[in-house]
Write a structure and sequence with these properties.
The complex is a heterodimer of chains A (about 290) and B (about 325). Helices cover about 70% and strands about 0% of the residues of chain A. By secondary structure, chain A is mostly helical.
Chain lengths: ~290, ~325
């Protein structure tokens, strides 16, 4: 029972990290980035490649993956998305879907269509026991890494001048320009941070669930459901939304194993009906 | 004079389009064209949403799937007549359109995209797992072939002609709709929501209308698919199919009446050509899609329009010179 709970919370944290990346992109660029799940998969594969290259320590692998994914993010934003005008909502969304297709098939070409898994020894340390429950390193490292990322992100966004500029760009691009802030620069910073976080969440999920080219959709969409449940404009809400989804998944998993996706989306739609801004979102609705 | 010809030429062209399949002999071509016709019906409905309303739905394959399965199961198990099942398809389209639309259309446009994506995945999930009803991965097979006045629509040629007739009917209905005041309302609320609502247009209900039209056309396509193809498998109704429909609209040119027609030929035949590339085909498909979004967001119809405008400019100039 407790084991199941721990697994649920761990998966929930991973969904929460994906949800944060959605929310960061949404806040800074007003874009729902559908390729997020596929970038998570790329993150997992890069970590596996790094281990195969001989880097077995967790910290450099996480750091290098974060940097590589962030660079991919910079290239995507400056090579593709910035050329599509903000007004063309449909075209932008289709471009993100197209990027998802590209990453998925690149992964097949580079890493093949087999499933891979990170060795569990990748996470250092041994199982610790709290109140007689033993917790394996994968689980507590996921908790530690995701909380560290959230805290760092919030410190960066709310305590530094750079973060202020990112938030201003998100709030109003025109206003940012008037204040001498270059929106393109800060949008690509926010975007690459979000992509980096997604990549790290790809590492975290790979010892528990296998990494293969098809995994992106499930994680991407559940991450989005988490973002909706928590509220697209709240980072702590995103993490809580993720944990809610993770727990729902393990709770229903035993009885309705095939229907988990349907249940998760059902709950997402119910939340949209009752509280469109999410459980923790700001109550102010933006008028259309 | 000119206008009279225009008024006459479109029905004549439509008739020629319907009769055209009778000239075909290749089974392969007719098979591709039938699938193309089904896709085209969905894409034309989706174009009302993507192109004329500026909203995104990634759930067309889901609505297509629900309707196909509802009609297919009714025809196979309950012995419902093919033509009568049409009303069930309409009901499915209306229910999904109004239900999902009412929830999401009051919110920002991104929410519709993600909710419809959720619908698409949910439908596939349920179709795969609800063994007692949908027969899971084995699919619903042996749906009886429809007949009209005692003639059974069985040969590929008859199937293609039936689909073409529906393509033409739906094309005309959508064209009529888009040229009516409702079509203008759609475009007004796409171009500027605030200005449109100042003019007294109810933006939310206008969008709801567009979303319902898109889902009803997808449902009609599902009904045709179930009846004319006779076999349904859950894996067909995936998110990739939804992306394909969006691709057709984007490639052809969103917001133009002819766009989906051009797009469906380019995308369906293009995919056939890409098929020879083997493993890398989806990669090329993705790259082309993204490039198109960046370079030519108004699609091929936009390109042709630009070309025609340029041509007209040149001929006008020549005319002026001649007049001098």
């Amino acid at each position: 029972m407790i084991d199941v709970l721990i697994i649920g919370i761990t998966f929930g944290l991973i969904y929460g990290l994906v949800a944060i990346s959605y929310s960061l992109i949404w806040q800074s660029m007003n874009l729902i980035h559908f390729a997020q799940g596929d970038l998570l998969m790329i993150g997992g594969f890069i970590a596996i490649t790094l281990i195969n290259l001989g880097i077995t320590n967790m910290f450099p692998v996480v750091l290098i993956t974060f940097v590589i994914l962030a660079l991919i993010g910079v290239v995507m934003q400056n090579g593709i998305y910035r050329f599509i005008p903000q007004k063309r909502v449909v075209t932008r969304i289709i471009a993100t879907l197209g990027m998802g297709i590209i990453f998925k098939n690149l992964a097949v070409l580079i890493w093949g269509s087999n499933s891979h898994a990170l060795p569990e020894t990748f996470f250092p340390g041994s199982a610790i026991s709290i109140f007689g429950i033993s917790i394996r390193p994968v689980y507590y490292w996921t908790l530690l890494i995701s909380i560290t990322l959230v805290v760092l992100l919030m410190l960066f966004l709310y305590k530094t001048k750079f973060g202020l500029a990112v938030r201003l760009t998100a709030y109003n691009t025109e206003l940012a320009k008037l204040m001498g802030v270059n929106p393109l620069l800060y949008q690509s910073v926010a975007f690459s941070l979000a992509i980096g976080i997604t990549g790290v969440s790809g590492i975290l999920c790979s010892p528990i669930s296998y990494v293969n080219y098809k995994m992106g959709l499930a994680f991407g969409v559940k991450g989005f459901a988490a973002a909706i449940i928590g509220g697209l404009d709240s980072f702590p809400g995103a993490i809580i939304g993720g944990i809610v989804i993770g727990l729902i998944e393990v709770a229903f998993g035993q009885y309705l194993s095939g229907y988990i996706d349907a249940v998760v989306f059902g709950i997402m739609i119910v939340v949209l009906v009752i509280r469109p801004r999410g459980l923790f979102g700001k109550s102010k609705a933006i008028k259309i | 004079m000119n206008r009279k010809i225009n008024n006459l030429s479109l029905p004549v062209v439509s008739l020629l389009v319907i009769l055209f399949p009778l000239l075909l002999n290749s089974y392969y071509t007719m098979r591709i064209l039938s699938t193309l016709g089904i896709y085209l019906i969905i894409a034309m409905g989706l174009n009302v949403l993507l192109g004329f309303t500026g909203l995104v739905s990634i759930g067309q394959a889901g609505i297509f799937g629900i309707s196909a399965y509802v009609c297919g199961i009714l025809m196979e198990r309950a012995g419902v007549n093919f033509w009568f099942a049409f009303f069930f398809a309409m009901a499915v389209g209306l229910l999904v359109g109004l239900g999902l639309g009412a929830i999401t259309l009051k919110l920002e446009s991104g929410y519709l995209a993600i909710t419809t994506l959720g619908l698409c995945l949910m439908v596939k999930n349920i179709l795969q797992n609800w063994d007692s009803m949908t027969n899971g991965f084995e699919g619903v097979i042996g749906i009886p072939k429809p007949s009209i006045f005692g003639y059974v629509i069985k040969s590929q040629k008859a199937v293609l002609v039936t689909i073409t007739i529906f393509v033409v009917i739906i094309f005309w209905m959508l064209r009529f709709f888009l040229k009516s005041k409702y079509g203008r309302k759609l475009r007004a609320s796409r171009d500027n929501e605030i200005a449109a609502s100042m003019m007294g247009i109810n933006v939310v209900s206008t969008r709801l209308l567009a979303f319902t039209i898109a889902s009803v056309t997808a449902a009609i396509a599902g009904w045709l698919y179930a009846g004319l193809y006779g076999a349904l498998f859950p894996d067909f109704f995936s998110m990739d199919l939804s992306v394909l429909f969006m691709c057709i609209v984007i490639v052809g040119g969103q917001g133009t009446i002819w766009g989906p027609i051009i797009g469906s030929f380019v995308v369906v035949y293009g995919k056939e050509l890409l098929g020879s590339l083997g493993e890398g085909q989806m990669l090329v498909y993705g790259i082309i899609l993204v490039l198109l979004c960046v370079v030519q967001p108004s699609g091929l119809a936009g390109l042709f329009e630009k070309g025609f405008a340029r041509l007209r400019e040149i001929t006008l100039k020549k005319g002026e010179e001649n007049a001098r």
